Amino acid sequence: MKSHTKGFFSHLILIFVSLLSIFPFIWLLSTALKGPDENIFQYPPVFIPEQFTWANFTGVWKQIPFMLYFWNSMIVAGFTVLLNLIFSALAAYPLARMDFKGKKPVFYLLLSTIMIPFQAIMLPVYLIILKLNMVDSVNNFMGFLGLILPFAVNAFGIFLMRQAFLAIPKELEEAAFVDGCNVFQIWWKILIPMVKPTLAVLAIFTFIGSWGEFLWPSIVLTKKALYTLPVGVNDLQGMFSANWRYIAAGSIIATIPILIFFIAMQRYFISGENDGAIKG
After folding, report:
1. Residue 122, phi then psi, degrees to nearest 5
2. Is the previous residue joined to 44 through a cis bond, with omega within 30 degrees of 0?
3. Same-domain pairing of 169 and 83
């Protein structure tokens, strides 16, 4: 009886926290579906629209070049994910499977960078981007590089991949050496296929972070042709007024790729998180 009571209260708390988490999304969806005559800021809030309409979703497509911003976000997020997977796996392999002098200090120094927020190093990164001409004023290709390269690898990804590599028995690696495989072949043909769940977890986190990034693109980009979705949707907000219904509708549409990506990768997600939780 005691265990059932404990389980009931645990589920009650989880449901309450879930409702708190989903509340902003419900309010956003409600705003996007309300007609022009409804007050979206009334208190207490009304979540069921009185004048249900899809006009805000069609209107936002006409108001801004939505598909252009969508493809810009896809390019930036896609290449950011790809580079993170490659570089994180390459950096994590020697930290997990090789012995070299200064291995632990290097790993702990790398891990300590997780505590430094990007906002703290944004100015020097921006100056580097300017010096390397990776801004959209040069050309579109360099503009995309300026958005992608600062986030091409991070300490969290390296740590996650290192933990996954540590979980693989060394006997597999030794057997591959006996069969004549070199280090790169072992990494590519033996280890990488075995850490696909962790790669999926890293891909999900990276995609969500890159897709929703607003601060860095809004600083670096000056051409509207290179705007990503968060910056493009924010462009609906003028200096003195804002169409909050369009902004809500655009934000809802912008979350769809994240949901699709997560659903496609979710079968790997739980096992990949468990791989990253193994003590090194």
Report:
1. -65, -40
2. yes
3. yes
> Average pLDDT of 33-58?
80
Residues contacting 272, CB < 8 A, separation 6+ = 164, 197, 198, 199, 200, 201, 202
Give 121's DSSP letter: H
Residue with tokens 């796996």: 89
Which pLDDT tens digit goes with each residue over 104-162? 999 999 999 988 888 899 999 999 999 998 888 778 888 899 999 999 999 999 999 99
Q: What is the dihedral of CA 87, 90, 92, 98, to 10 degrees?
A: -160
pLDDT tens for each residue of 60-116 = 888 888 889 999 999 999 999 999 999 999 999 999 988 889 889 999 999 999 888
One domain for residues 19 and 103? no
Same domain assignment for residues 23 and 2: yes
Asked if 73 and 38 sit in the same domain, the reply is no
Q: What angle do CA 123, 129, 134 make, to 5 degrees?
A: 150
Nearest to 153 by CA among 102, 99, 81, 224: 81
DSSP tag of 239? S
Query: End-to-end distance of the chain based on CA atoms, in angstroms?
Result: 39
User: How far is residue 128's CA from residue 220's CA, in Å, rounded to a whole number?
Assistant: 12
> Residue 187's domain is classified under what CATH number?
1.10.3720.10
Share of the chain above pLDDT 90, in %: 34
Residue 205 CB-half CA count within 13 A: 18
- Rounded to 5 degrees, φ, ψ at 102 are 80, 15
Are 235 and 224 contacting, i.e. CB atoms less than 8 angstroms apart? yes
Instruction: Tell me which residue range forms the domain holding 2.
Output: 1-53
CA distance 2 to 8: 10
